[in-house]
Design a protein that fits this description.
single chain; 247 residues; Rossmann fold; 8-stranded mixed sheet; 8 strands; 41% helix; binds NADP nicotinamide-adenine-dinucleotide phosphate
Amino acid sequence: MKTKTIPRQSRRRFLQVAGVATAALVLEGLSLTARAASTGKFKIGIVGSGRVGSALGGVWVKAGHEVMLSSRHIEHDKALAARLGANASAGTPREAAAFGEVLMISVPYGSLPAVGKDLAALIKGKVVIDTCNPFVWRDGDIATWAQTKGAGLASAELLPGARIVRAFNAIGAARMGSAHEEPGRIGMPIAGDDAQAIEIASRLILDIGYEPVLVGGLDMGKYLMPGTPLSGENTPQEIRKIIATLN
Ligand SMILES: NC(=O)c1ccc[n+]([C@@H]2O[C@H](COP(=O)([O-])OP(=O)(O)OC[C@H]3O[C@@H](n4cnc5c(N)ncnc54)[C@H](OP(=O)(O)O)[C@@H]3O)[C@@H](O)[C@H]2O)c1
C-alpha cells in the first residue's frame, strides 16, 4: 500500500472532538507493549475472518501491523494469512485474543455470546473494535434484544471488561480495503466510552485511510448500524452534520 500522510488538520480535529490527549499513549491499564506505543505498530488479533475480518486484516498488514486471523476454521485462516503476507498469521480465537494488543471482533451477532464467554478472560482490559451488527433475519432473538438495547451497550454486556470501540459497522466490507487511496476523504463514525481505547482505535482507523469521527459513547452505538442516517460512505463533515441531528 502506498502510505500517504493523513492530513494533520483532520487528526487534530478528531482529537479535539474526542477530547483525548495527543501525547504518547498511556500504558497503564492497557495491554500494550512499549514497542506498540513507540512505533505505532500493533499486534492485532482478529476474531472472525470473513468479509470484514479479511478486508481489514489485509489493509492493516499492508500498513505494517502484525495480524492474527481466527475463526472456527483454522485451515481457511491459514490460507488467508498466507495470501496476506509475512505479517499475517492464523490461530484459534483464543490464540488471536491472546496475541492481540488490540482485538477486532467481527462475527455475526448471533455468535457474540459464545465468543464473549469463550474469550472472557482474554478480552478483559483490551481494546476491542466491534464491527458486529445485530440482524433479526440472521441472528434471531439476540438481535431483537441488541436492537432494543442499542448495539453498543449490548456488545458491552456480551464482552464484559473489554474496552469497546464500535467502528466499521455501516460501510460495505468490499470498500474497506480502498479508503487508503484517498486518505481522510471518508469519515468513520465511531462510538466508545474509553478515551484511550478511542485513541488507539483511531490510530488504526487513520492508518487505513479513514478519518475517525466520534459520535459519542457506547449508547450512541445504536446509530452505528446499516439503515441509520450514519450508514454508508460519508465525508467527515457530512458525518458531523448528521451527528448534530441525532437525539
Ligand atoms: N459484510 C459487511 O459489509 C459488513 C460491514 C460492516 C459490519 N458487518 C458486520 O460485521 C460482522 C462480520 O461480518 P462479515 O460480513 O465479515 O461476516 P462473515 O463474512 O459471515 O464472516 C463472519 C466470520 O465470523 C466467524 N465466526 C462465526 N462464528 C464464530 C465463532 N463463534 N467464533 C469464531 N469465529 C466465528 C466466521 O467463520 P467460521 O464460521 O468459520 O467460524 C467468519 O470468519 C457481522 O456482525 C456483520 O453484520 C458486516
